Amino acid sequence: MPVQVIVSQPGPLPITVNFKAVSDAPIYLELNGSVWTQSANQMIGIQVAIDGGPIGKALIFSNAASTHRAVVPIFIPLQLQFGQHSVTLSALPNSTTVSDQNDYYTVVLHY
């Protein structure tokens, strides 16, 4: 199965990357990364958007404060048109999610 690595870089969030879709067939977008919070007992995570529209969230519950946590990876089914698109990773809205240069993010398209 061919893959296309779209994002592979450290934070902080938000991160926006432009890419060219090489197929218009159904695909899966895979999101991995880490985030943290300054407060204990918080749901934190990463929101992913394609072309400005949110399509999913990767989450983790953090029992402790000030500890970087890997989110649970997600796979989102998509179908893009050939051509240019953008992917944006941002902190989970309405949460205490924080990211910095010690966090790392990966987005992969599985064709």
Helix content: under 10%
Our count of helices gives 0
- Please indicate the count of domains: 1
Give the overall form. elongated
- Under CATH at level 1, the class stands as Mainly Beta
Largest sheet: 6 strands, antiparallel
Spatial separation of the terminal alpha carbons: 6 Å
Total beta strand runs:
10
> How is the CATH topology named?
Jelly Rolls
Estimated structural class:
mainly beta
The oligomeric state is single chain
Gyration radius, rounded: 14 Å
Keywords:
111 residues; mainly beta; 6-stranded antiparallel beta sheet; elongated; 4-stranded antiparallel beta sheet; Jelly Rolls
Can you give a write-up of this model?
- It is a single chain.
- This protein is 0% helix and 65% strand.
- The chain has one domain: Sandwich (Jelly Rolls).
- It has 111 residues and is mainly β.
- Strands 1, 3, 6, 7, 9 and 10 form a 6-stranded antiparallel sheet that branches. Strands 2-8-4-5 form a 4-stranded antiparallel sheet, with no helix packed on it.
- It has no helices and 10 strands.
SSE diagram, text form:
Layout: E1 3-10, E2 15-21, E3 26-37, E4 42-50, E5 53-62, E6 69-70, E7 74-79, E8 83-91, E9 97-98, E10 104-110
Antiparallel strand pairs: 1-10, 2-8, 3-6, 3-7, 3-9, 3-10, 4-5, 4-8
Characterize this entry briefly.
By secondary structure, this protein is mainly beta. It has no helices and ten strands.
